[in-house]
Amino acid sequence: MKRLLFLLLLFLTEYQQTCAQKNYGRRLVDTLAGEAMKGRGYVGGGDSLAARFIAAEFRTLGLLPYKGSYFHSFEFPVNTFPGKMSVELGGKALVPGVDFLVDPSSRGGEGTFSLVFVEPEDYKLWDRMAARLREAAKGFLVMDEDDWERLSEAERKVKELAVKYLKFSKEPLVEGVIFLSSRKLTWSVSTKEFPRVLITVKKEKVPENLDSVTVHMDQHWKSSHIAQNVLGWVKGKGKSDSVLVVSAHYDHLGKMGAQTVFPGANDNASGVAMLLCLARHFSEYPLEHDLLFAAFAGEEAGLIGASEFSKQEKEILPRIKWLLNLDMNGTGDDGITVVNGSVHQKEFRKMQELNQQAMLPSVKPRGEACNSDHCIFHRQGVKSFFIYTRGGIKAYHDIHDRPETLPLTKFDELHRLLVLFLQAQERE
User: Fold this and answer.
1) How many whole angstroms separate alpha carbon 209 and alpha carbon 191?
2) How far apart are CA 208 and CA 180, in angstroms?
3) How confident is the model at residue 218 (pLDDT cuts 50, 70, 90)?
4) pLDDT (0 to 100) of residue 12
5) What is the mean pLDDT of residues 322-339?
């Protein structure tokens, strides 16, 4: 009877702690992906708002600042679209983020322009394509991406040469390009500025006999944007010089125009929420080793925050015993994938073994992939795993990645597994 009561109390204690973590995680996702954060990008200071919020959470949780400050600053160029964002075809306004996307490297533009459509035969010879480019002078060229799937190798070279010209050539010929697509629209961030307007439009939104487009796109090139990594310590109980690192990028795509926001709930408010839940746990139950919690900026712009940290803080790299990078932790119906799992097989097997207690549906390995901040450290010999959840919603780099539709299906189980794994690493 006493044993039964003990097990019941143990279960209730663990259940309460788990619920508290998930509830905390939900509040964090709702805040970080909320309207006030402006997509955590480069319009309206969204990334700075998120950085200050994370630093305040670190402070509340009792994490120590890294070298006297929670902020680690750096600069990089970025292209932004802070104002008007409109496209009209056949007199009908398209919906930003739903019907069209501006290329993240595009310049701005305003006016009504004639259209010239590239035909499949134009890819057969460069002379044909060059004639289309001249025909589109002072107007917009229209290219159907579905045509590209049927091109021969020679035709593909003509296409690639044309696209390269349209993106990079500063010759005053074509004013802009419309790429027609039947695929899902996904946006990104660019640290480049192209010399003309580039737009991707959903193919079904183009009316027949279309001969003109009206655009109004406000664009602002930032040659030196200041961003901050946010860093907090949990000091270990022991005397080891080794450090365990938990990282997650907090930046996202921000805004495409004044009204269209990319909230980034799964990518990567969920990873930051998991990082902060782990910070809260280990601030209460510290390990023998020091723990560094790193919320990186500039990931969507090319892993810039992690790269700048590794350059400016080289002395810490040999001390890092293990790095866990968390990105897109908001689902989990089908379990998790562990990038570098097939590289560090011993540690991966340990994670699979620990999952018998965490009870995620599956823990699958993947090889090397430079698709998140862990890559910067992996390339410098730091042992690392990058963990993302699988299954559930498909929203990614679009306006639909919202907090109200993010289920956090296996947030509890993943949190439990990460705690167990970090505990196991200090014993290795």
Assistant:
1) 36
2) 13
3) very high
4) 37
5) 98
Q: What is the pLDDT of residue 89?
A: 96
Nearest to 75 by CA among 254, 295, 224: 224
What lies within 8 Å, CB to CB, of 386 at 6+ separation is 325, 326, 327, 338, 339, 340, 369, 371, 372, 373, 374, 375
Separation CA 192–CA 169 (nearest Å): 13
pLDDT score of 19: 46
The set of residues, in sequence order, having a beta carbon less than 8 Å from that of 50 and lying 6+ positions away, is: 32, 37, 40, 250, 251
* Residue 403 burial (CB count, 10 A): 22
Q: Which domains does the chain have, with CATH numbers?
A: 18-78+222-427 (3.40.630.10), 84-217 (3.50.30.30)
Report yes or no: 186 and 396 within 8 Å, Cβ to Cβ.
yes
Q: What is the pLDDT of residues 98-136, one digit of tens each?
A: 999 999 999 999 999 999 999 999 999 999 999 999 999
Q: How far is Cα 51 from Cα 2, in angstroms, rounded to an integer?
A: 49
**Cα–Cα dist 332/315, whole Å:** 36
Strands (DSSP E) found in 204-311: 212-217, 220-234, 243-249, 254-255, 261-262, 290-296
Q: Tell whether pTM > 0.85.
A: yes
pLDDT of residue 20: 65
Q: What is the pLDDT of residues 23-38, one digit of tens each?
A: 999 999 999 999 999 9
Q: Which helix (H) or strand (E) holds 71?
A: strand 71-80
The length of the chain in residues reads: 428
Phi, psi of 399, deg, nearest 5: -75, -5
Note the pLDDT of residue 189: 98
CB 277 within 8 A of CB 58: no
Two structure tokens written together for 71: 């902020």
Q: Before 23, cis peptide (omega within 30)?
A: no
Listed in sequence order, the residues at least 6 apart from 77 whose beta carbon sits closer than 8 Å to its beta carbon are 191, 221, 222, 223, 224, 225
Burial (CB count <10 Å: 0-12, 13-18, 19+), residue 6:
exposed
CB atoms within 10 A of CB 317: 15
Give me the helices (H) in 359-389, please. 374-378
What the block records as the tokens of 143 is 């290219």
β-strand partners of 230:
71, 295
**CA dihedral in degrees (162, 166, 167, 171; nearest 10)?**
130
**How, if at all, do strands 384-390 and 335-339 pair?**
antiparallel
